[in-house]
Amino acid sequence: MKNEGKMLVPIIRYINHYFKNYKVTFILLAVVLIFTIIWVPEFFNIENVINVARQASITGIVAIGMTFVILTGGIDLSVGAILAVAGVSFAMMIQRGLPVGTALIIVLLLGIFMGLLNGLGSTFLGIQPFIMTLAVMAIGNGLALLLSNGTPQAFTSENKLLEFMGNGSLFGIPGPVWIFAAGAIIAGIVLRYLPFGRFVYGIGGSLEAARLSGVKTTRVLLIVYMISGLCAAIAGIITASRLYVGHPTTGSFIMLDSIAAVVIGGTSLIGGRGSVAGTIVGVCLLAMVANLLNLLGVSPFHQQIAKGLIIIIAVLFTTPNLRQKIKQQWANL
Amino acid sequence: MAFPLLEMRNISKSYNSVKVLHNINLKINSGEILALVGENGAGKSTLIKILSGAIQADSGDILLNGKKVNFQTPLDAEKNEIVTVYQELNLFPHLSVAENLFYSRYKNTRGWIRWRKMNEEAEKFLKDFGVHLRADQPVRELSIAEKQMLEIAKALHRNARVMILDEPTAVLGGDDVERLLQIVKRLKNRGVAVIFISHRLDEIFGLADRYLVLKDGQQMGDGNICDTTPDDLIGMMVGRHIRVVPQKKIEYENRTELLRVENLSRKGVLSNINFTLYKGEVLGIAGLRGSGRTELVRAIFGADPVESGKIYVRGREAVIHSPRDAVRYGIGLVPEDRGNQGLFKNLSVTHNMFIANPKLKWIHYRNERNKAAAYVESLKIKLTHPGVLVGSLSGGNQQKVVLAKWLEARVDILLLDEPTRGIDVGSKAQIYSIVRKLCEQGMGIILISSELPEILENSHRILVLSKGKITAELDRASATEEIIMKYAVGGSSVEK
Prior knowledge:
- The complex is a heterodimer.
- Chain A is mostly helical.
- Chain A has a single domain (52-317), classed as Orthogonal Bundle (ABC transporter involved in vitamin B12 uptake, BtuC).
- Chain A has helices at residues 2-39, 46-71, 79-95, 100-123, 129-148, 160-166, 175-193, 195-205, 207-212, 217-243, 252-264, 276-295, 300-318, 322-331, and strands at 153-154, 169-170, 173-174, 245-246.
- A two-stranded antiparallel ribbon of chain A has the order 1-4.
- In chain A, strand 2 and strand 3 form a beta hairpin.
- The longest helix of chain A has 38 residues, at 2-39.
- The radius of gyration of chain A is 21 Å and the shape is globular.
- The model of chain A has no long low-confidence stretch (mean pLDDT 87).
- Chain B is an alpha/beta fold.
- Chain B has two domains: 6-238, P-loop containing nucleotide triphosphate hydrolases (Rossmann fold, 3-Layer(aba) Sandwich), CATH 3.40.50; 257-495, P-loop containing nucleotide triphosphate hydrolases (Rossmann fold, 3-Layer(aba) Sandwich).
- Chain B is 34% helix and 25% strand.
- Chain B has 18 helices and 22 strands.
- In chain B, helix 5 (144-157) packs parallel to helix 6.
- The radius of gyration of chain B is 25 Å and the shape is globular.
- The A-B interface holds A 10, 13-14, 17, 192-195, 197-199, 201-202, 205-206, 208-216, 272-273, 328, 331-332 and B 72-73, 75, 301, 303, 322-324, 326-328, 333, 335, 340-347, 351, 354-356, 358, 360-363, 385, 387, 405, 409.
């Protein structure tokens, strides 16, 4: 008995420690869930839940890539643009009769390449990630418009894979959710069990300390931005295959939503702290709130405001020594 | 009886249950210069941080003219006209001299800045104070001495009654020191109470009225400078003499060579460095700040570029372009700036310990927990749980985590750059006993330290660096602090 107690202590401590980091996220989720059960039970209609999940998955896939970038202390503003370029170019390749598999690979490589540009700029050229990815965002947006001549590119395909990615489902669960889940699991494993993940956190903690610990920091950063580009491209293909249209101006909200999801999930913008699990909760939270407000008949304009407030609240509660900080700011007013 | 201008009574402070100040009492009057002396880590900076409101004491009072005051922020201290001039200066490099001097209270008429008037007044104020600077010059173009004088002038301009100067002369040479000391004397004549921190005893005896000696957070003595001698002061600073146990003698015959550096050079930093490090040896590197000692180990480790020269590891030429390469050759660096370069403060102890091992392929958490526990035990790291953030540990324990990181990476050449900086006495001893054990196990260790007794105590051989050159190679038996200092200040003064 005594021994068992001893065994339990580190486990409880670990759970406590883990919970402490993501306390706010979980509390917020719990609050939203309780709220839903009481006021909007119709949310739990299977069809509705599936629909929400399908929507959330696209943001979620982008947010996975974003998690890697933010963990290193960077940011990727170009994800929306990459998503748009990916969607448009995918649609146009199918239009011109390219096999789906080939188009898929080309588009994914394109996403990786655009991520690589972000990485090269923010490592070799020393441009701050915010600026570099802002530039790539502008280039990507322009490219999407240029390719499509500013018009949505419709296409048709009988391809099963495409249908699965867009509108299909497996065992009742939509295709995008499967892809999101697979991505989240892979990302979770990479971040937790591979040295690469450890380096990502390390770079976020201190780039110089990572370099002086023998980490190939430049390589890690390049890969991180390539992952983000890849995720955005996947999300772009899914978006395109939902309506069989590649839309050149889609994706502007995705960038903000994915950053919001990562931040709500307890990942610090300074880097070094956070997890994929947190991001998943963040994505779910954002999607749920949007859907709830819809069901309650709140206008999309109000929804935007609500989203903003949620971000502020989530970040506020993760700030350590908030009270002391407020006091200090007050003194310097 | 009149109250002293400023009094600190029974000040105590602890960090992470390590007591760094024990009941310190300090008094100072207007127009007085108080020398605050003590070795590195004696508690001087903690004391002045408390006085300047940057941190708060656990117990004790601060009294101004006999009235209790409470400083929660540096602003509170400034409002009470107590100003600290830190070593790392708080000037805005891209603003002009006048802008820095008048910062946040620019000369203006109805909100419009009067540039000409401001510059004129700045120049006049500085001239009256004996500082000759152009008011419109950007501060980044000034020398360190000029910046320091500007900082002091700025404090004076804000009617400082008490000014704390944190080792203002440490980074200055010859004439600049003299100019700065003149300025300090002028402060005294204007009735400012000056708390002056310095290691240089000649300065203290030429300048100060009174002294206060700290040693390991204890007040070792205080009184009038004229009643004491430099030897007494040193005696108080060093305190109870810790018995020096020098390194065991080792035989160099047939010793395996671990690291050999040939003609290592980098323009303006290192010139023609040659030396060999043997298995089982601690090679001390002594030299003043800026002598190139940090740059030397960073160059070997691949952290800084090298212009010419060769490095041989275990007899074979090593191509080291990055720290990654160095780690693969079995070299580890414990950097000077532990907080930013040695550690990931906001990551866990385990994360820190297992990040540098180049052979790591897959992370086994249970395995790591066991290994971490083993390191915690063998290195005597004090912590509640290996999952805690490294930043929450005390300096000594943090440094042990850095050591564990390199032990886990299986390096056999360790470069230690000021491994005990800012670490309490107990942990220092522990770290050096670890160093000795490691070299007995066959590691080769390069040890850099500003504290000569540490170098003397722990090295088998000592290299002295001065201005990027090796000026002496001494063995354990023949080296003394005086000899090392002689070579460290440069060959030219030795010949005189």
